[in-house]
Sequence to fold (160 residues):
Amino acid sequence: MTSQNSRHTGGVQCTVRRPLPLLAWAALPLLVTAVVLGFTSLGELLLGASGETVLTSAHAGAAAGLTAMVGYSIEWPAGWRKAHWTYAAVILIAGFFVHGTNVPPIVAITLGVPGAALLLRMTWLHRAAGKRGTVVRETEPKRRVVQAPSMPRPAITNKA
Fold:
């Protein structure tokens, strides 16, 4: 049952305040994977555990998921909207091929620590750009919601 006061408010509009640049988005899965491997190796080094860090498909899966979600904020050129799904799928499939690859600690740390600094710098620049001027765009065009006229309810009379 619905009350007379309840009405459909129409579609919910999704807005993105600060879209990520295309190049930063393309580098995101590689940087995230390098940072995770680098800090894992650094932690193993500090704890005195020896051995190589193993690159798994879970790393690529997380990177692919992040890539797919952040891809919604990209202002794509005409006809390129499917590229964000394709790129995320390529990252995921590549993860299956590199699963189980041993990465030497020096390589992981050498790539991971500067990668973390680069991600922090990208985040800082992205936020600074947002403070100067927020970009708001809609992911779907506005739709006019037309409601059907309500039918009058029949009067109920008590005949006794």
Summary: Helices lie at 22-47, 57-70, 83-98, 105-132. The chain is about 50% helix and 5% strand. The first strand starts at residue 15 and ends at 16. The CA atoms of residues 60 and 93 lie 8 Å apart.
